[in-house]
C-alpha cells in the first residue's frame, strides 16, 4: 500500500515541530491499527529545509542569521535554494518512504514556499507553482495541518523561547502577516488543508490534530472484513 504524506504548515511560533512529534508518539501508541488491513505502517518524521545531508547544508545557509550577515541572498536565489532542497528531499527521502508504505510526517512542504516566497517576498506565484511541480516530481501531500495563530502571538512565543531568531523569524510584522494571508489563500483552494487553532494550549491543539488524523486514517486504512 502506498504511504501517506502528512505535512505541518504555518507561520512562526505555531508549534509545528512540537505537534509533529506529539502526533508521531500518538500514532505509534494508538490501538487504531489492530483492526486495520495491513497493520501498522512505520511512521517517519522529516523537515524542510534540512531533511537530507544536502538539505542540512542548505538549511544552515538559508536560515542562519550569522551566515546571512555575510552572504546576502536575493529573493529569487532563496526560492531556488528551497527548490533544490525539496528536489533532493523528495528523491532521497519522501518518495522511498511513501513507496514502502510509510506514514511520512513532514515539517513544511510546498505551501510554505507559496506563503513565504510568494506572498511574503512577493515573488511570482505562477513561477513558484512551476518550481514546486519540478521539485516534487508530482509528489503531493495527502493532508496538510495548518497551525494558524495571530502573528503577534506567534512572534511573542518565538521571543519567549530565548533563542536567536533565524532569517525568517527576523522579518518585519507586515512580512509575517502577508505569510499568514498566503496560508489563508492556500487553504481556501486546498480541500485537504485543515486549519488548526494554534493559539490554544498544546494539549488542546494535539487533541484537535488527533481527531482530524483519526478521520483521515479511517479513509486511508479500511477495517478488516468481518466474517
UniProtKB/TrEMBL annotation:
One of its GO terms (molecular function) is dTMP kinase activity. The keyword Transferase applies. Keywords: ATP-binding, Kinase, Nucleotide biosynthesis, Nucleotide-binding, Transferase. It catalyses: dTMP + ATP = dTDP + ADP. PROSITE patterns: THYMIDYLATE_KINASE. Residues 8-209 form the Thymidylate kinase-like domain. This is Thymidylate kinase. It comes from Acaryochloris thomasi RCC1774.
Amino acid at each position: 500500500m502506498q504511504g501517506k504524506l502528512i505535512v505541518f504548515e504555518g507561520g512562526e511560533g505555531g508549534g509545528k515541530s512540537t505537534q509533529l512529534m506529539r502526533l508521531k508518539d500518538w500514532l505509534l501508541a494508538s490501538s487504531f491499527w489492530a483492526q486495520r488491513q495491513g497493520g501498522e505502517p512505520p511512521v517517519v518524521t522529516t523537515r524542510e529545509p534540512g531533511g537530507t545531508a544536502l538539505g542540512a547544508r542548505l538549511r544552515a545557509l538559508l536560515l542562519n542569521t550569522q551566515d546571512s550577515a555575510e552572504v546576502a541572498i536575493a529573493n529569487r536565489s532563496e526560492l531556488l535554494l528551497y527548490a533544490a532542497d525539496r528536489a533532493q528531499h523528495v528523491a532521497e527521502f519522501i518518495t522511498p518512504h511513501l513507496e514502502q508504505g510509510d506514514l511520512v510526517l513532514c515539517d513544511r512542504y510546498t505551501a510554505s514556499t507559496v506563503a513565504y516566497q510568494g506572498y511574503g517576498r512577493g515573488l511570482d506565484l505562477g513561477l513558484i507553482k512551476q518550481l514546486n511541480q519540478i521539485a516534487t516530481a508530482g509528489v503531493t501531500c495527502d493532508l496538510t495541518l495548518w497551525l494558524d495563530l495571530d502573528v503577534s502571538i506567534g512572534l511573542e512565543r518565538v521571543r519567549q523561547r530565548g533563542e536567536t531568531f533565524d532569517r525568517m523569524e527576523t522579518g518585519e510584522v507586515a512580512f509575517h502577516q502577508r505569510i499568514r494571508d498566503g496560508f489563508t489563500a492556500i487553504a481556501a483552494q486546498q480541500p485537504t488543508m485543515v486549519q488548526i487553532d494554534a493559539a490554544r494550549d498544546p494539549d488542546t491543539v494535539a487533541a484537535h490534530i488527533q481527531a482530524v488524523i483519526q478521520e483521515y486514517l479511517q479513509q486511508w486504512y479500511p477495517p478488516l472484513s468481518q466474517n
